[in-house]
């Protein structure tokens, strides 16, 4: 059998992942991102405890454009992971296994992520 006659499986360019699959993958990715962000937080706290010169360096890094972009991404990851974790708690209680409820809770978790991130940044920049 030649390789040209073999059937092709759906590829990621053709197949569209459902929202629930994207949410599951994103939950895992944000968990890793939060772990990386904890190292940054630990560095910032150690710099604060080390003295004004070290703290000024840490503040300059986090105050830069890339630092603020990192903090924004970390904030989004935090609130997404929190919201999706609450979905998991609801599933543990037996609620939300039906497809319409699962999609509704996914959309609520995404909305909560946006709202909580915006509120946190408004309060933080004030």
Automatic annotation (TrEMBL):
<keyword id="KW-0408">Iron</keyword>
<protein>
    <recommendedName>
        <fullName>Succinate dehydrogenase cytochrome b556 subunit</fullName>
    </recommendedName>
</protein>
<dbReference type="GO" id="GO:0006099">
    <property type="term" value="P:tricarboxylic acid cycle"/>
</dbReference>
<dbReference type="InterPro" id="IPR034804">
    <property type="entry name" value="SQR/QFR_C/D"/>
</dbReference>
<dbReference type="GO" id="GO:0016020">
    <property type="term" value="C:membrane"/>
</dbReference>
<dbReference type="Pfam" id="PF01127">
    <property type="entry name" value="Sdh_cyt"/>
</dbReference>
<dbReference type="InterPro" id="IPR014314">
    <property type="entry name" value="Succ_DH_cytb556"/>
</dbReference>
<comment type="subunit">
    <text>Part of an enzyme complex containing four subunits: a flavoprotein, an iron-sulfur protein, plus two membrane-anchoring proteins, SdhC and SdhD. The complex can form homotrimers.</text>
</comment>
<feature type="transmembrane region" description="Helical">
    <location>
        <begin position="20"/>
        <end position="45"/>
    </location>
</feature>
<feature type="binding site" description="axial binding residue">
    <location>
        <position position="81"/>
    </location>
    <ligand>
        <name>heme</name>
    </ligand>
</feature>
<keyword id="KW-0479">Metal-binding</keyword>
<dbReference type="InterPro" id="IPR018495">
    <property type="entry name" value="Succ_DH_cyt_bsu_CS"/>
</dbReference>
<dbReference type="InterPro" id="IPR000701">
    <property type="entry name" value="SuccDH_FuR_B_TM-su"/>
</dbReference>
<keyword id="KW-0560">Oxidoreductase</keyword>
<comment type="similarity">
    <text>Belongs to the cytochrome b560 family.</text>
</comment>
<dbReference type="GO" id="GO:0046872">
    <property type="term" value="F:metal ion binding"/>
</dbReference>
<feature type="transmembrane region" description="Helical">
    <location>
        <begin position="57"/>
        <end position="82"/>
    </location>
</feature>
<dbReference type="GO" id="GO:0009055">
    <property type="term" value="F:electron transfer activity"/>
</dbReference>
<keyword id="KW-0812">Transmembrane</keyword>
<feature type="transmembrane region" description="Helical">
    <location>
        <begin position="102"/>
        <end position="123"/>
    </location>
</feature>
<keyword id="KW-0349">Heme</keyword>
<comment type="function">
    <text>Membrane-anchoring subunit of succinate dehydrogenase (SDH).</text>
</comment>
<dbReference type="GO" id="GO:0016491">
    <property type="term" value="F:oxidoreductase activity"/>
</dbReference>
<keyword id="KW-0472">Membrane</keyword>
<keyword id="KW-1133">Transmembrane helix</keyword>
């Amino acid at each position: 059998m030649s390789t040209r006659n073999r059937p092709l499986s759906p590829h990621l360019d053709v197949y569209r992942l459902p929202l629930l699959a994207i949410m599951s993958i994103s939950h895992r990715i944000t968990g890793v991102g939060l772990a990386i962000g904890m190292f940054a937080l630990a560095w910032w706290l150690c710099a604060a405890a080390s003295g004004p010169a070290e703290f000024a360096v840490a503040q300059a890094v986090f105050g830069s454009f890339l630092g603020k972009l990192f903090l924004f991404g970390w904030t989004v990851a935090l609130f997404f992971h929190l919201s999706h974790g609450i979905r998991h708690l609801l599933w543990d209680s037996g609620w939300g296994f039906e497809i319409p409820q699962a999609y509704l809770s996914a959309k609520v978790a995404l909305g909560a992520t946006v709202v909580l991130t915006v509120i946190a940044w408004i309060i933080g920049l004030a």
